[in-house]
Each structure stands twice: as structure tokens, then as C-alpha cells.
Design brief:
Jelly Rolls, single chain, eight-stranded antiparallel beta sheet, mainly beta, 351 residues
Length: 351
């Protein structure tokens, strides 16, 4: 797991102790908001300029597609030359590459449905700038349809300049609709700020009697959920939002690189394949009240103990087909058994 994923805590103790981003020598730091742009009308570019030079960027993108399909792409520092290359796949299919391109191709989004993307950029001035991203979108409204997903990697072959501007460029027939937003966060090991973007909203441990949950927390537009789950028996866990246990969820997943599988009209946001060993799960969610809630999840479970047995990995996107309320509580629900007291659910959020 890369360093940006491991913030805002340092290390993996049973308590997942929060250290506000883990700046060196006991300093305060973490992900800080460097800039954001929210479109007031439809357009083909969402630009965040005048960025401070940070070693890493985290990019959150709330995409509202117009009535036509949009094609999201990344550009840096207004460079429109053929200085980009990328690799991506759609729903776990065959990789597609672009070279000597005028942007990093980030993928197409279906007309009229919301999409969400979380990306990271390594921004070392004298090296090519590397991007990794994950996107999910609704495909069609309702829990009977699974969302779509994309995995994106790319590079800007510039070895002379740090990134000071990030542009999400639409090359498709449509536009980014009004309300589409680009938020750029920065992290650097030398940071000592105290205005961390991510606010801890909830932290709760299992009690050994079944599932467990956060209780009510403050609604935020962006959520980051991290879990360490230690099950008592083989089980298939899921999340339920706002105590909704009806069949209002759907998801798409790949386990250990296998072909994608989908779950529709399900009673929760399913997390990992059935497992009896500990698992670690990261989820980012776009939590707009009037749109379906889209989540991008990555997980690893221990599998059989010992170095002779490789762990299992899981990549998925999911949605809660609720267009009336923001998520304000989260429950971890096993299909059987319970979670030990070392299990933990942490939720961070930001507007």
C-alpha cells in the first residue's frame, strides 16, 4: 500500500492511531487543501492553478456529466504538447494505452449520471510525474444496475518543473455540467500545518458480539473509510448506510485480478469475498445528497497465515441508490459470526 493511502495515520497498530498525517519528528501535517474549482456553468475544463509545490497530490473529482458522454483527461501546467502517456482499463478488461498524447486519458463517463474519481500524483521536480487513479460512475440509476469502474495510470514526461496547475479536460462530445468540482490536496513530509483537510468523524471498535457501527456523525461531501476487520468465522461482510438494510445497493468487483463480477439489488455495500482472516479496507465515497452515493474500495485479506501464502486483493466500486440523504451513519454487518474487539472502523470526512 502506497504512502498516500496510509495517511492520515502513521503505522498499523490495532488502534490505527491517528497522528494528523504523520509529519516527521512529531510535527503536525497531513493532507491540506491547496485549491478547488467548482463549475458554475457547463464547461470542458476544470482548472486548479497556483498550486504549492508538494511532493504528493491527492485529487478528488466530483463529475456531473451533461446530456452527452464526457471524456475526462489530465493536463498539467497548461502543457498541450505530446508529453503524456497512459494506461487504463474499463471494468477489469484489457489494458488500453496511449503514448505521445496531449493528455493522460482518464476515461469516458456516461451521459447524465454522476461519477467520482480519486487520484494521486507523485510530483518530484526532476522526475517524470506519475499518476494513479480510480473512478466509478452510476451507469444507470437504481440498485438494479451495477456501477462501472476504471483504473488509470499515467505520466507527464516533464523532468524540469514541479506541477503548479492541474486541469481536468473533457475531450468528449458533452460537457462537465454545473456543480462539477475538482479538489487538489497536497502532502509533504516537511509540512507542519494544522488545518488538515480530513476531519475524523467516527472511530469505533468491534465488541465481539456481531456487527458494529459508527452511530450518527456529521454529514460531509467526501468520506474516507478505513477498516481493519478480524472475523470470528468465515463471513461475507457488507456496509449499510443510515440503517438502510433494503436492497438499495449494487457493486462491481475484481478479486485477485479475475474478471469483474457484479452484485445488484443487494442489502448492503459488499466489502470483500468471504473470508475468515483479517482484512484491511480503504473506501472513498462521494456523498452528495441528491445523487447516488458512489464508493471506490480497495482491500486486502490475510488469507492463510504465514509467508508461504499470498494475501488476497480486491478492487471494487459500489453505490447506494439513495438520492435524498447524505450518509450520516455506517454499520459493518457480517452474514454470520462476529468481529473481535481489535476490529476497527474509522471515518474521515470533508466538504
Amino acid at each position: 500500500m502506497s504512502l498516500p493511502y496510509l495517511q492520515p495515520y502513521l503505522g498499523l497498530s490495532n488502534g490505527l492511531n491517528t497522528l494528523h498525517g504523520g509529519a516527521g519528528a512529531g510535527g503536525i501535517g497531513g493532507w491540506v487543501e491547496l485549491g478547488r474549482t467548482t463549475l458554475g456553468s457547463a464547461g470542458d475544463n476544470i482548472t486548479v492553478s497556483s498550486l504549492s509545490n508538494k511532493r504528493y497530490y491527492m485529487i478528488l473529482q466530483d463529475i456531473r456529466a451533461s446530456v452527452n458522454t464526457t471524456q475526462g483527461n489530465w493536463r498539467f501546467n497548461s502543457d498541450t504538447g505530446t508529453n503524456y502517456a497512459g494506461r487504463r482499463n474499463y471494468n477489469g478488461g484489457t489494458d488500453y494505452t496511449t503514448t505521445s498524447s496531449t493528455y493522460i486519458e482518464s476515461g469516458g463517463y456516461d451521459a447524465g449520471v454522476p461519477a467520482f474519481q480519486i487520484s494521486y500524483v507523485a510530483n518530484y521536480t526532476s522526475k517524470e510525474k506519475l499518476l494513479q487513479g480510480h473512478a466509478g460512475w452510476s451507469d444507470a440509476t437504481g440498485a438494479a444496475t451495477a456501477p462501472n469502474r476504471q483504473e488509470i495510470t499515467g505520466k507527464w514526461a516533464n523532468t524540469s518543473n514541479a506541477i503548479n496547475e492541474i486541469i481536468s479536460h473533457n475531450a468528449g462530445a458533452g460537457d462537465y455540467a454545473s456543480g462539477s468540482e475538482l479538489v487538489v490536496l497536497g502532502w509533504d513530509p516537511a509540512d507542519s500545518h494544522t488545518n488538515n483537510f480530513w476531519e475524523e468523524l467516527a472511530s469505533v471498535n468491534g465488541d465481539g458480539t456481531g456487527g458494529f457501527g459508527t452511530g450518527s456523525f456529521t454529514a460531509k461531501k467526501y468520506l474516507w473509510i478505513q477498516m481493519w476487520l478480524d472475523p470470528s468465522t468465515n463471513q461475507f461482510p457488507k456496509l449499510q448506510f443510515n440503517s438502510d438494510g433494503a436492497n438499495n445497493y449494487s457493486s462491481r468487483k475484481s478479486v485477485n485480478g479475475a474478471a469483474d463480477a457484479t452484485t445488484t439489488s443487494f442489502s448492503g455495500f459488499d466489502l470483500v469475498n468471504s473470508t475468515s482472516t483479517p482484512s484491511f479496507i480503504n473506501i472513498f465515497i462521494i456523498n452528495n445528497s441528491s445523487n447516488e452515493k458512489l464508493g471506490i474500495a480497495h482491500s486486502v485479506d490475510q488469507n492463510t497465515a504465514g509467508a508461504a501464502n499470498a494475501p488476497n486483493r480486491d478492487e471494487r466500486v459500489g453505490k447506494w441508490a439513495n438520492t435524498s440523504n447524505q450518509i450520516t451513519s455506517i454499520d459493518v454487518v457480517p452474514d454470520t459470526g462476529n468481529y473481535s474487539t481489535s476490529s476497527i472502523l474509522k471515518v474521515w470526512g470533508a466538504n
